Amino acid sequence: MGTKLRLGTRGSALAMAQSQTVADLVTEVTGQPVELVEITTAGDRSTAPVQQLGVGVFVSALRDALLAKEIDFAVHSYKDLPTAPADGLAIAAVPERADPRDALVARDGLTLAELPAGAVIGTGALRRIAQIAALGMPVTTVPIRGNVDTRLRKVADGELDAVVLARAGLARLGRAGEVTEILDPMLMLPAPAQGALAVECRSADTDLVEALAALDHRATRAAVTAERAFLATLEAGCSAPVAALAEVTEDDEIYLRGAVISVDGRFALRLSRTGTLADAEEIGRALAADLLEDGAENVLGSAE
Ligand SMILES: NCc1[nH]cc(CCC(=O)O)c1CC(=O)O
Questions:
Q1: Where do the coiled-coil regions begin and end (predicted)?
Q2: ipTM greater than 0.85, yes or no?
């Protein structure tokens, strides 16, 4: 056995679960033991809405610890990473993705369509709020924060009729059995890179970059590349909620769907593109250009 690798992780149950999964994989492929090092982020200390804190808040403390060499690598939920690359760091592996879809956990086993008029759904994500609003149902959404356990408890306690969460997160916590409906991407397109993990280390740590590459899953890497190129291109031209899902077939074809939806749900643009795996990045950029050409930048304007 070589030296112990230090894997930096947030302390939440979800972060610990996904870090432990990757730690086990790393030990399996490299033979090196991995030690989990808990890092507290500003996002964990604050109770402010995530939108106010900014997406990078959970990530920057881990990146600081990497650059300060306090840890050797970190595991992020890929969808929480800012699109700008981090100086001096590399995403050495994108392991095989879990189910990328969103899931509904509702009282009494209800599906979305079965929720009665006046039902209250907990979700703080603008992308989810916008897509629920676009369905035109007589339901309302309320912001919700806290860990997965806290969110599920609000349904069990009767405080909320339902919550929408990433199925991958529920599965990693062993709570997928509580899902009452997996939401079809035709209704609820997930966040770019949802369900995927990013394994990050210092780019100068070439031995580790190479070792971690053994965990990389080619189809997942391509799907995430297409979805994130789509997001990055749209971010420059439009700040409405963005959703995307790329599916890769056995013969290396990519089917990328993307959407931009106004928060009030009144305007939704949805398009798709297909292509080959090697062109993942280009497909993402081209799909974003299609949406911008259709007026994606006006979608947010209409909600303001
Ligand atoms: N926004 C928070 C977040 N970041 C990653 C996950 C778990 C699922 C994943 O890895 O995509 C979640 C919870 C959720 O959206 O329900």
A1: none
A2: yes
